[in-house]
Amino acid sequence: MVDYRDTLEIAPEFDLAPDEMVLNMGPQHPSTHGVLRLILKTDGELVKAVKPVIGYLHRCAEKCGESTTYPQFVPYTDRLDYLASMNNNWGYCLAVEKLMNLKVPERAEYIRIIMAELNRIASHLVAFGTFGLDMGAWTPVLYAFREREPIIDIFERACGARLTYNYYTIGGVWKDLDTAALKSIRDFCDYFEPKIDEYDNLLSFNEIFVKRTANIGILPPELALNYGVSGPCLRGSGIKYDIRKNDPYGIYDRFEFEIPIGTGEKGTVGDAWDRYMVRIREMRECVKIIRQALATIPDGETQTTARIIRPPKGEIYIRTENPKGELGYYIISQGTDKPFRIKIRAPSFSNLSVLPEISENHLIADVVAILGSIDIVLGEVDR
């Protein structure tokens, strides 16, 4: 339990005026999207300062990686951003493969792309649904989980799991996708694409939703760069930067897709509405990538023949474009079967750090909108 008497000890910089007070939002609060505690300095309904307090979910994932073999750490990566487990698996496996100079079979590269983009859609669907819920709209979360269910069914068919998948392996993927699985993915793309128009009609251009999000939590491009913000939050500020395009990994350079950015269509560039809309438009691009991969996927093996994972001495940093932003893995190898050091660069951690800057002089209800537009997952904030 949190002892709220320690609030001013945690936030000594809050020099309270006679008409100001401190309010704790979380760590048990539905709109903090997990065990996040926000200490708010308020003047009535106006928020004068915000201080995030993290650490309630700390699980020592990086230290666990240093005490397990390289393959044994893959399931731990599932539990970072547990809404994008496939993408987490890929980043770590890619780092170890580069360290070992290990080549992944062509078919496995295509399957990795397909599964990562499906997981990106699934992650953005949760962001869309829960953001609508934060704004007082119940229907979007029902629509989002309705569309997310077929994706989870595809993942379950591939690896037997529905949340933490452990599907990517060092050197490929755990299991091939058969003809029926590929057909179900095509069918999903045909089913899902028209649903995005429904989301726009239901929420994106809803007058109440626009008034709750436009010109709220404006994140200028310079500030976003200074804080290391990445992913949809960075692109929402008008910066056209996506690692899949700017520093391609896997076989992303073979596919054509656009990078949506915030344009200030409903307010000011970099506001909460822009961050939300980037994710909606990215889902269309995900479908485009999946269709291209399905059309050109080759036959062949899905796993290399490497049986002992023991990278040579050295170090490496690999970054990938997770649904939340730039996910990086830094690994130091001493030539044994276990990493000497693992450091994870989690996008939600950096994105959350800018919250105090863009929440000042907003209403308490606006802080909920701003936090929802950042779309964090505490599993990778605390690690």
Automatic annotation (TrEMBL):
Subcellular location: Cell membrane
EC number assigned by the record: 7.1.1.-
Stored Gene3D superfamilies: Cytochrome-c3 Hydrogenase, chain B
Alphabetical UniProt keywords: Cell membrane, Membrane, NAD, Quinone, Translocase, Transport, Ubiquinone
Topology term for the membrane: Peripheral membrane protein
Substrates-to-products reaction catalysed: a quinone + NADH + 5 H(+)(in) = a quinol + NAD(+) + 4 H(+)(out)
A GO CC term attached to the entry: plasma membrane
Positions of the NADH-quinone oxidoreductase subunit D domain: 134-312
Pfam families: Complex1_49kDa
InterPro entries documented for this protein: NADH_Q_OxRdtase_suD, NDH1_su_D/H, NiFe-Hase_large
One Gene Ontology molecular-function label: quinone binding
Entry superkingdom: Bacteria
Record has Membrane as a keyword: yes
Family affiliation: Belongs to the complex I 49 kDa subunit family.
Biological role: NDH-1 shuttles electrons from NADH, via FMN and iron-sulfur (Fe-S) centers, to quinones in the respiratory chain. The immediate electron acceptor for the enzyme in this species is believed to be ubiquinone. Couples the redox reaction to proton translocation (for every two electrons transferred, four hydrogen ions are translocated across the cytoplasmic membrane), and thus conserves the redox energy in a proton gradient.
Complex and partners: NDH-1 is composed of 14 different subunits. Subunits NuoB, C, D, E, F, and G constitute the peripheral sector of the complex.
Protein name, UniProt field: NADH-quinone oxidoreductase subunit D
Source species: Candidatus Fischerbacteria bacterium RBG_13_37_8
